[in-house]
Design brief:
This protein is of the alpha/beta class and 177 residues long. Helices cover 50% and strands 14% of the residues. It contains five helices and five strands, in the order E-H-E-H-E-H-E-H-E-H. The protein has a five-stranded parallel sheet with strand order 3-2-1-4-5, with helices on both faces. Helix 1 links the parallel strand 1 and strand 2. Helix 1 runs parallel beside helix 2 and helix 4 packs parallel to helix 5.
């Protein structure tokens, strides 16, 4: 994938895989990174590393479980920084606990972030990508999206769902570039 001169939006960019992808995109010469995570402080730390490569970095402290906030942020990003060419969905939450000891608020948080948050931002960005006839969407799952693990029932379920969601989008959006 050619990324020079492109803009990428990465969720979960403050740590882990999202952070690593942001740094690699910067090393490869991407023009602009829109970084999304809940922690502004962690995003700022990642941004400081990325700016050393000459990449423009814009931070969005955003909770993907809040669809109105996500909608506003995407509209503002497109208005202020132009089109997003690459969307990388890395944001995720995991609460490890046996199923019998699991708590509904934790289950709801995993589903809200890992699935609904990914769906919300992907829908908003994909609609704009279809209009521009260009875009790449990368949804990061996990090994637990292929092999379920004890004490990770809901997390595994959300990661399995990401694979199905991605396969369906591939079929639906391919004709739109």
């Amino acid at each position: 994938m050619k990324i020079q001169g492109k803009t990428a939006l990465i969720t979960g960019a403050s740590r882990g895989i999202g952070r690593a992808i942001a740094l690699e995109f910067a090393k490869q010469g991407i023009q602009r990174l829109l970084l999304v995570a809940r922690s502004h402080q962690r995003l700022a730390e990642v941004a400081a590393e990325i700016e050393e490569f000459g990449t423009e970095v814009i931070l969005f402290s955003l909770d993907l479980t809040q669809p109105v906030e996500v909608n506003i942020a995407i509209a503002r990003a497109w208005r202020d920084y132009g089109p997003v060419h690459i969307l990388v969905n890395c944001a995720g939450v995991a609460h490890q606990s046996s199923f019998l000891q699991s708590r509904l608020p934790h289950v709801q948080e995993e589903i809200a972030t890992n699935l609904i948050g990914m769906y919300t931002i992907t829908r908003l960005v994909a609609r704009r990508m279809v209009v521009q006839q260009e875009g790449t969407i990368v949804n990061v799952s996990s090994l637990m999206g292929r092999l379920a693990a004890p004490t990770m029932a809901t997390y595994s379920a959300t990661k399995f769902a990401i694979l199905g969601f991605t396969q369906a989008l591939r079929g639906e959006l391919a004709d739109h570039g």
